[in-house]
């Protein structure tokens, strides 16, 4: 985790870069900022208690981040997934991490984005984040890393999805039951997604 700065650290770096009159605006005093990170790169490389997999209902593997996680974890992950009888959209199930540096994988199934049912899709996407965090807390996980669920093959617009990701995680980590959850890491793959997260994080985790 030393390689993954908290958002507070990111803000502090930006304080150094900011002109003096702007520094006060960036002064962080919100402890929630110590509980999230933004990380750009391959989620399968992270040595955390759990990484979240953007899976499909079968839980039997696929492309995108799901394919990368199964490749890195090795075939025993698929063996355990076969025992789970799939997973409904918006729900989450946990397995071991096998050959991954992460100890566990929390498999969640995001919605396939398709207008006009956008409110239903938004509820399902929020449920992915919430149920993943619930499963994490039940399993005494302290560090959890999320990919940007549904925004690849499943076509969810990145801006809308990021509002849901940040809002749902913020709401959860403010609740009493999340007290042992130390850090939630948002993992982005592309520069575009990183830009969206960097822009929206201050709305949900204000640096004031
Ligand atoms: N590390 C972090 N993020 C990644 C990685 C990686 N190694 N690889 C891709 N991403 P997607 P979905 C990003 O398509 O939209 C699978 O076939 C990617 O750039 O993996 O929920 C499943 O089996 C994007 O930002 O997931 C399902 O059938 C994000 O992860 C379906 O795809 C999610 O993209 C699920 O589609």
UniProtKB/TrEMBL annotation:
Species of the source: Lyophyllum shimeji
Protein name as annotated: A1pp-domain-containing protein
Macro domain ranges (all copies): 23-205
